[in-house]
Amino acid sequence: MSYVIEGRTGAWEIVVGLEVHAQVISNAKLFSGASAAYGGEPNTHVSLIDAGFPGMLPVLNHECVAQAVRTGLGLNATIHLESRFDRKNYFYADLPQGYQISQFAHPIVGEGKVLIDLADGGQREIGITRLHLEQDAGKSMHDQDPTRSFIDLNRAGVALMEIVSEPDIRSPEEAGAYLRKLRQILRYIGTCDGNMEEGSMRADVNVSVRKAGEAYRTRCEIKNVNSIRFVMQAIEVEAARQVEIWESGGVVDQETRLFDSARGETRSLRTKEDAHDYRYFPDPDLLPLVISRDWVEALKAALPELPEAKRLRLEAEYGVSRYESGVLTAEQAVADFYEEVAKASDPKLAVNWMLGDFFAALNRTGKSIDESPVSAAGLSELLALIKDATINGKIAKDVLEAMVETGESAAEIVERKGLRQVTDTGAIEGAIRDILAANADKVAEYKSGKEKLFGFFVGQTMKAMKGKGNPAMVNDLLARLLAE
Amino acid sequence: MSLDTRTVRRIAKLARIGIDDAEAEGLARELGGILGWVEQLDEVEIAGVPPMIGTGLAAPRAREDVVTDGTVTGGACREAVLSNAPDRVEAFFTVPKVVE
Amino acid sequence: MAGMTLASARKALEARKISAVELVEAHIGAVDSLDGQLNAFITTSFDRARAAARAADERIAKGEAGLLEGLPLGIKDLFCTEGVRTTAASNILRDFVPPYESTVTANLLKQGAVFLGKLNLDEFAMGSTNLTSAFGGVTNPWRREGSDAKLVPGGSSGGSAAAVAAGLVLGATGTDTGGSIRQPAAYCGVAGVKPTYGRCSRFGVIAFASSLDQAGPMARTLEDCALMLEAMAGFDPKDSTSVDRPVPRYTEALERGVRGLKVGIPKEYRVDGMPPEIDALWEQGIAWLREAGAEPVEVSLPHTKYGLPTYYIAALAEASSNLARYDGVRFGARVPGASLDALYEATRREGFGEEVRRRILMGTYVLSSGYYDAYYLRAQKVRTRIQHDFLAAFEKVDVLLTPTAPSAAFAWDEKPDDPVQVYLNDVFTVPASLAGAPALSLPAGLDRQGLPLGLQLIGRYFDEETLFAAGRVMEKAAGFTHRPAIVAEGLA
C-alpha cells in the first residue's frame, strides 16, 4: 500500500481525516414537523420553526435520535446515554435562526471504527472520532437574479449526522474505500441513502502532508466535496499543493478551501479563521438528551446483519471466495438476491452466474438489482435447468438474454425454442460421423498427431447440433470415434 | 476590567451590529463597566459545581417522526412562512447577491 | 362598576347584570380616554374585541361560558397573536403580523377572554423602566403626592402593569425573565405572578432569555391572578421545557390560610441603603403572616448578592443568540445593504434600540472564544449554587417573604445613566428567576410620597398554591384600596 508523494526533498506521506455529513432518513425534520423529503417546490417543506420565527421552539424528533444510535452501533462506536444540543452561532442567509443546533460538546456517539477494503484485498481499520446530530441549513441560489441571491428553506432543519474520522487515512484510495464502506454501512442500516448527487452525503476533507515519522503539519479543510471521485482527486491535488509549498520554503496556512472539479484544483475561500467564533453554548430551548441502555440494546437487537458479518457468513455458508463475498455484499439487495438463488439452486453456480452474465445483463440494461428484469426465482429456475442437464451452459446464456428481453421464464423459453440439450447417443454419434466424414483431411491430420484439432471437431459438432448437444457426451463420443 | 474599541468592533462584527467610532468608544466604556461589575463572581467557590442547565423539572420528551407541519403542495403554510418577508421573489426570500 | 375585578365582573356577567359587550365597551372607552396619557397600548384590536364580546354574550346565554368569558384583557406585546401586529416594542418588528398564536394567548382565548390589544414593554423585554420601547415609554398612572413628574411603571411589563392599575383592562399577561412581572406590579400597585419555570408554555412568546422567560398574569387582586393563571398554565408539547403536570384550581387555594406555615425571611435581602419604608413594610408583612398563624423563620440564601451579575451573563448570552434571527431576511424591518453583511449590520443597527444593542454585544462577548469559561460557564455554576440556596431554604420553610423592589417607582428623568445602576432594580426578583422558582408580588402599602410598594413571596417549585394562600392573607390584611392618579373611574 503505502502511498507517498515523491518530492524534491524526499518522500511525503499524506494524512487525511474526513467529516462526513450524512442526511438522516426520516419523515420529518430534526426539530419540526415539516417534511424532510428531498426536492419539493421552494419553501414548501418549511415550518415556522424552520424559518426561525419569533417565539418558535424546537422539539426533538425521536426517530432521528434512533437513527444516530443505529448508525453509531453500525460503526462499532460508544453510545453516549446522555448528550446535549448546543447552539453554533453564525450569520448566513440560509441559516434562519442565526444559529445551528448541533451537538458540539457532548455528541450522542463517541469513538468507533470502520474496516475498509483495499484494492489488494487487504483491510485497514479507520478510527471514528464521533458522530453527532445537527440541523442542515437552507439553500442559497446565486444565479437567478443579477443583484440578489434567493433563499429556499426546504433543507433548513433536516437532520444530519456528522461522522468524524480520525486522521487515519493515508491515501486517496483509502479515502475512497472509507467513504464507500461508510455509505455501505449507512445503507445497510437504513439511516442514510448515501446519495451524494442529491447532497445527502457530503464530505469535508482535512488534508496535511508530512515526512515519515514527523508530527502532524498544518492541515487544510476542503469543504463540501460531493462525490467519492472528487474527494480522491481533491486529496491528491491538495497534498501535491502542500508538498510544493513546503518544499519551496513556504508555510501552509490553516484555512478552508474549495475543490474546483472543473479545474482540478483547490482554492482558498479566503475566510480568516479568526473571523469565525461560533460561541457555542447549550441550547436553553432543549433538555439534555437522555436515552436508556435498554433502548439502545433494543435498537441493537433489531439491526440488520452488517456488511462485514454478512461477508463472513456467506463465505462460511456458501463457500464463496473472499473476493466474491465482497462483491455480493456491496449492496444488501445483491446479497439477499444471491442467498435466494443459492438456496434454490446451487451456491457455486449461483455466484458464477450472478457475478458473470447476470450483472452483465443488469449493466447492459442500466437497471439496479431492485429493478432487475429477472427475479431471483427466475434465475434459480434457469440454474436448475443447467444443473439437471436440461440445457447446457452455453445455451443458458442465450436463455438468460431472452429472459431479460421478453420477461418469459427459462422453462418457457427452452420449450418454445426447443433448446433442450440432446443426450441421445445415437443422435450425437450421427452428427459426429457426418462431421468426420465431411472433414476427412482434418481427421487425417489429427491422427498424425495434430491433437489441437479436437476442439475444432467439438465446435463443428455443437454447431451442427445448434448448440444443444450435451458437451460431456459430445466429448466422450468424439474421442471414441476418432480413435476408431 | 476595560475593553478596547478594537474588541468592541470585533464583537459588533460577530453580532452583525453596525457601530461607528463614537459609539465604539462609548460602548467600550459601558461594557467595560458591566464586565467590571460581574467580576465579583470570581469570589464564588465553584469547584466541582455543575453548570445549571434548566431546572431539571421537565421530563425529556420527543416528537414522533410524523409530518405535521409545512406543506408538501405549497399552500397556506408557505404563504404563512413568506407573508412577512421584507423582499421576496415568487416563493423565495432574497438577500443581496452572495458571491462565493 | 366601582372597584371592579376580574372575579366580580365574571360574577356580574354570569348573573347577567351586565353584558360582555357593555363591559368591553366600557374598557374601550377607558383606553380611548386615558391611554393618551399612559401609552400603555402599542396596538389596539377593538374590532376584534367587540366581535369577541358579542360571541361571549352568546356563549354566556347558552350556558357555555369559559373561565374568562367576555372579560377584557391586555396582552403584553411579546406574545405572538395571530393576525394582530406583534412588535416586542422594537422597530425591527414594527410591522410584524404573526401567522400564529402563542399557546398562552390561545389558552386564554379558549376560555373566552377578550383582548383589547397589545401592551407596551421594554424593547424585547430588556429593561426595568419601560423607557426602552421603540413606541415610547409608558407613564405610571401613579403620581407622587404634590408632584406631576411622570414616573416609570417599571418593566419590562410596564404597559401591562399601567393598564391594569389604571383600569384599562381587568387583567393582563406579562412575562418575567428577571422580575419583569413582579417589579412593574410593585411600581404600579397591582398583583403579578411569575409561575414556576415550565408552568406556562413559551411557544409563541418572543424569547429574551429562554432559560428564564416565564409568562404570568397581572391583575388587581390575587384572586384575579389565580383565575388567569388557571387559564394560561398547562403542558404544551410544543415547548420542550414545558412541564407535564396538572394545573391546580389556584382559586381554591386562595382561602387556605397560613396556619402552621413556615415563612422564611432571607437575611441577605436586607441590603444597604434600602429605604426604611420598605424595611418597615417587610416587617409589617411578617407581622401579618405571624398574626394569621404562620411562623416566620430567618433563613440564609448566601449567594443572593451574586444573583444580578449571574443573571446578566446568563440572560444576555442567551439573548444575543435568540435575537440573531432578526436579520431582515424572512420577517421584520430591513435596511438595504450592498452585501449580505452590510444588510445585517444596517438592519440590526437601525432595528434595535440602544439597550438591546448593548445587551446583544455584552452577550456576544461573554460567549466569545476565550471568555466562555470565565463568564458564561462560571455564571451557570454560580446559578447552580443559587438554586441550591433555595432548595436548602425550602427544606426548612414553605415560602419566602421579601420586598419586591428596593425602591418605589422613580421619575422618567431619574433613570440612572449607568446601566448597572438600572440593573439593581431587579436585585430581589432575579434570584427566584435564576432558580426557576415561582414568585408573586402584591401591593402592600404606600411610601411616604404616596407611591405603591410591593412584597414578594417565593415558593417551592410548582407550589403556586401556597403563594396564593399566603399572599391572600397579606392582601386582606393590607386592605390595599388605593388607586392611582390616572384611573378609569368606576372600572378600577
TrEMBL record, chain A:
The keyword ATP-binding applies. InterPro entries: Asn/Gln-tRNA_amidoTrfase_suB/E (IPR017959), Asn/Gln-tRNA_Trfase_suB/E_cat (IPR006075), Asn/Gln_amidotransferase (IPR018027), Asn/Gln_tRNA_amidoTrase-B-like (IPR003789), GatB (IPR004413), GatB_C_1 (IPR042114), GatB_Yqey_C_2 (IPR023168), Gln-tRNA_amidoTrfase_suB_CS (IPR017958). It holds the Pfam family GatB_Yqey. It catalyses: L-aspartyl-tRNA(Asn) + L-glutamine + ATP + H2O = L-asparaginyl-tRNA(Asn) + L-glutamate + ADP + phosphate + 2 H(+); L-glutamyl-tRNA(Gln) + L-glutamine + ATP + H2O = L-glutaminyl-tRNA(Gln) + L-glutamate + ADP + phosphate + H(+). SUPFAM superfamilies: GatB/YqeY motif (SSF89095), Glutamine synthetase/guanido kinase (SSF55931). The keyword Iron does not apply. It comes from the Bacteria. One of its GO terms (molecular function) is asparaginyl-tRNA synthase (glutamine-hydrolyzing) activity. One of its GO terms (biological process) is glutaminyl-tRNAGln biosynthesis via transamidation. Residues 336-482 form the Asn/Gln amidotransferase domain. Its EC number is 6.3.5.-. Keywords: ATP-binding, Ligase, Nucleotide-binding, Protein biosynthesis, Transferase. Allows the formation of correctly charged Asn-tRNA(Asn) or Gln-tRNA(Gln) through the transamidation of misacylated Asp-tRNA(Asn) or Glu-tRNA(Gln) in organisms which lack either or both of asparaginyl-tRNA or glutaminyl-tRNA synthetases. The reaction takes place in the presence of glutamine and ATP through an activated phospho-Asp-tRNA(Asn) or phospho-Glu-tRNA(Gln). HAMAP family: GatB. This is Aspartyl/glutamyl-tRNA(Asn/Gln) amidotransferase subunit B. The lineage of its organism: Bacteria, Pseudomonadati, Pseudomonadota, Alphaproteobacteria, Acetobacterales.
Automatic annotation (TrEMBL), chain B:
HAMAP family: GatC. Allows the formation of correctly charged Asn-tRNA(Asn) or Gln-tRNA(Gln) through the transamidation of misacylated Asp-tRNA(Asn) or Glu-tRNA(Gln) in organisms which lack either or both of asparaginyl-tRNA or glutaminyl-tRNA synthetases. The reaction takes place in the presence of glutamine and ATP through an activated phospho-Asp-tRNA(Asn) or phospho-Glu-tRNA(Gln). InterPro entries: Asp/Glu-ADT_sf_sub_c (IPR036113), GatC (IPR003837). Pfam families: GatC. The keyword Flavoprotein does not apply. This is Aspartyl/glutamyl-tRNA(Asn/Gln) amidotransferase subunit C. Belongs to the GatC family. PANTHER family: GLUTAMYL-TRNA(GLN) AMIDOTRANSFERASE SUBUNIT C, MITOCHONDRIAL. Keywords: ATP-binding, Ligase, Nucleotide-binding, Protein biosynthesis, Transferase. It catalyses: L-glutamyl-tRNA(Gln) + L-glutamine + ATP + H2O = L-glutaminyl-tRNA(Gln) + L-glutamate + ADP + phosphate + H(+); L-aspartyl-tRNA(Asn) + L-glutamine + ATP + H2O = L-asparaginyl-tRNA(Asn) + L-glutamate + ADP + phosphate + 2 H(+). Its EC number is 6.3.5.-. GO terms for molecular function: asparaginyl-tRNA synthase (glutamine-hydrolyzing) activity; ATP binding; glutaminyl-tRNA synthase (glutamine-hydrolyzing) activity; transferase activity. It is an enzyme of class 6 (ligase). Gene3D superfamilies: Glu-tRNAGln amidotransferase C subunit, N-terminal domain. Heterotrimer of A, B and C subunits.
Automatic annotation (TrEMBL), chain C:
GO terms for biological process: translation. GO terms for cellular component: glutamyl-tRNA(Gln) amidotransferase complex. InterPro entries: Amidase, Amidase_CS, Amidase_dom, AS_sf, GatA. Its EC number is 6.3.5.7. Allows the formation of correctly charged Gln-tRNA(Gln) through the transamidation of misacylated Glu-tRNA(Gln) in organisms which lack glutaminyl-tRNA synthetase. The reaction takes place in the presence of glutamine and ATP through an activated gamma-phospho-Glu-tRNA(Gln). Heterotrimer of A, B and C subunits. Belongs to the amidase family. GatA subfamily. This is Glutamyl-tRNA(Gln) amidotransferase subunit A. The lineage of its organism: Bacteria, Pseudomonadati, Pseudomonadota, Alphaproteobacteria, Acetobacterales.
